[in-house]
Amino acid sequence: METFGELEYVRRVLAQARIGQMAAAEAVQRVVEAVESAWYVLGRLKVIRAWQALAFLERGELPDTQRCIAAVRELSTLIDGDVDYAQFR
Asked: Which of 1, 24, 34, 51 is most enclosed, with most CB atoms within 10 A?
């Protein structure tokens, strides 16, 4: 599923934000679109922490470390929990 591939990218961007690296505007737009897509496909509660962290990036701010960690964990659970996608990788 393409959504999970994009969520891997989101996970990388948020992991970099955790260590203080701000993504380029184009990357932020891409991850926002990916999470928005996942929001509709998987359900709002599945990506709520990622959405909250990305709200900071959209404003040009870095989310705090704990928010990034929570978002990365949330995405990891989704990505690693999808058996079909795990076989695809």
From this structure: 34
Q: The tokens of 3 are what?
A: 């959504």
Quote the distance between the C-alpha of residue 49 and its chain's center: 8
| Nearest of 50, 47, 58 to residue 12 by alpha carbon | 50
List CB contacts of 16: < 8 A, sequence separation 6 or more: 23
What share of the chain in percent tops pLDDT 70? 90
Q: Is residue 53 within 8 Å of 67, Cβ to Cβ? A: yes
Task: Give how far Cα 38 sits from Cα of 11, 21, 60, 64, 68, Å.
Answer: 13, 24, 22, 23, 18
